[in-house]
Amino acid sequence: MTKGNPIILKAFLCLAICCSAFSCSNQQTEKQKVLRHVVSFQFKEGLSEERKAQAIQDFLDLKNEIPEIKRFEGGEDISVEGLNQGFTHSFILTFESEADRDIYIPHPAHIRLAEKNKPLMSNLLVVDFWGEE
């Protein structure tokens, strides 16, 4: 049995390691398309802070009831620009696909939330768009 050239073997090993590292780093930087579901609203005048807080908590709790929601973030408007057009709160729900969003919309937990809290709102806006993660 003949031995291979050690320099060529080392060069081949180095090349294999570099290609593997490059391939792994490319996989980590590739961005995944995700569906963002934006919900903005304004509470009706005269609601107590306690009732508003409960409505917001009810909304946030959907994350625990609907596994298709991959991420849920948002809160009260803090913009200094004065362009909120009356919307006081905004939330972004992230889904991996339209199919996941389509499970969320008629989900019994979402329907219960809407029936309970939509009457508390004087203004409601929902927008979906594709983003990356």
Characterization of this structure:
With 133 residues, the chain is α+β, with helices and mostly antiparallel strands. The protein folds into 2 domains: 1-30; 33-132, Alpha-Beta Plaits. Helices cover 43% and strands 27% of the residues. The chain has helices spanning 6-29, 49-60, 62-65, 98-104, 108-117; strands spanning 33-43, 71-76, 89-95, 121-132. The termini are far apart.
Q: Report the helical percentage.
A: 40-55%
Radius of gyration (Å):
24 Å
Return the domain count: 2
Low-confidence stretches: 11-16
Q: State which percent range the strand residues make up.
A: 25-35%
**What is the general shape?**
globular
* Largest pleated sheet: 4 strands, antiparallel
Quick check: average pLDDT?
87
CATH topology heading of the largest domain: Alpha-Beta Plaits
CATH class of the largest domain: Alpha Beta
Biggest sheet: strand arrangement: 2-3-1-4
The total of helices stands at 5
Secondary structure class reads: alpha+beta
* Quaternary structure classification: single chain
Order of helices and strands: HEHHEEHHE
* Number of DSSP E strands: 4
CATH architecture of the largest domain: 2-Layer Sandwich
Distance between the termini: 52 Å
